[in-house]
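Treating backbone geometry as a discrete language has practical consequences that deserve illustration. Part of our work consisted of pairing the sequence of a single chain with a tokenised description of its backbone. We regard such an encoding as a compact summary of how the chain folds. The amino acid sequence and the backbone structure tokens for this protein are reproduced below.
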Amino acid sequence: MLLLDITIVNVALPPIARDLNASFTDLQWVIDAYALTLATFVLNAGSLADLFGRKKVFVGGVVLFTAASALCGAANSSLFLILARAAQGIGGAIMFATSLAVAIGPLVGGGLTTWLSWRWIFFVNIPIGIATAVIAVLYARESRDPEHGGADWVGLVTLSVSLFTFVYALLRGNDKGWSSGLILGMLVGGAVLLALFVVSQWRGSRPMIDLSLFGRPAFAGAQITAFTLSGAVFAMFLYLTLYLQNYLGFSPIQTGVRFVPITVLAFVCAAASGKLTAQMPVRLLLAAGLLLCAVGLFLLRNITVDSSWTALLPGFILMGAGVGLTNPALASTAIGVVPPARAGMASGTNSTFRQVGVATGIAAFGALFEHHVRAAFPGIHGAQLSALASGRLNELAGQANQQLVRHVDQVFVGGLRELFLIGACIALAGAVLALALVRQEDFTAEAGHEAELVAG
């Protein structure tokens, strides 16, 4: 349910916007609220389980996630939904996720939204959560390790608040003004809190992240790969969804079907990548995967105001192949370059960089896209700006003369083309850094065996 809930929501965003009168910024927060709390709490989940008991903490996480899902489904405002999504992220931080959930998310979300309601993408978690909690209570054994338990509350607070301030600044910068006191204060405050987080990790007795691991180039390369893959590719699904539904007019299920080529190629190439990690340098797989993603994103720039969805197909195919090649190699690298005793922390750190990449990618792309729209229409604001930024061009067509409609289309598609180019550059930079930093000699013998099991 954990990663399924990250991807399943994307295709439901346009119906959510209509039902809750959500703005373009609200839609970004619906994704980011979940990703940010997941990113920060996942690092402390293991410590809390050691301290209070793994069974007890797991059941508590399932209950919180399930209750938050019910609140999401019952939301009557965008603010209520955003807060409930944040609670979901906290509960989800201690729950297990699979790559299958990520791949089928858009299709499942599209089906539920089209045939039932967007609320069912959250309600569907309730019976699953109840069944999981009951099974855990009845059959799971309690275990704890108090000597290794204890959450890093200082690290949790400083990291959480710093990420929130950065994302808030990105989402509100165009509206408030990038030189305004509020936005500058948020950026400076976020930087200060991030510095305090780093200090707390160096000096803390039980840090969330062992910063000494970043002294290993391959470990740093794994985090950069995770961040760039999520920031360049997975964050882009929000904007692709808005294009397919609001611009091209597809239903949620039709949108999910259009993402199937990415899913299929990701599965096929992941199977191949898992086998190849034992036969060739992992850095080549990481670099090749990100390079394919970069080329795929660049090919998405072929869309025009008159394009059909098939113009996206070449890019989707390469992106799916790239994601499939990268993920198994990334999983093996994250734990394969650290001592086995640090594998849990290394895996959690990699998950955090993935979610931070999604959150910051969505916010940064949104800021760039909104800036593009404002530059083209200096006088537009409020509901009109939100409608244009999220691709609800039919709402503007009735308010504008026909001479402007074509220009509105060009602005929206032109903004997407800019995002695709920037995403391609980010993925390309990630490929270069992965090739430079991830060295085969950095893999430890013991961890390398575990990494092979994880990858394939």
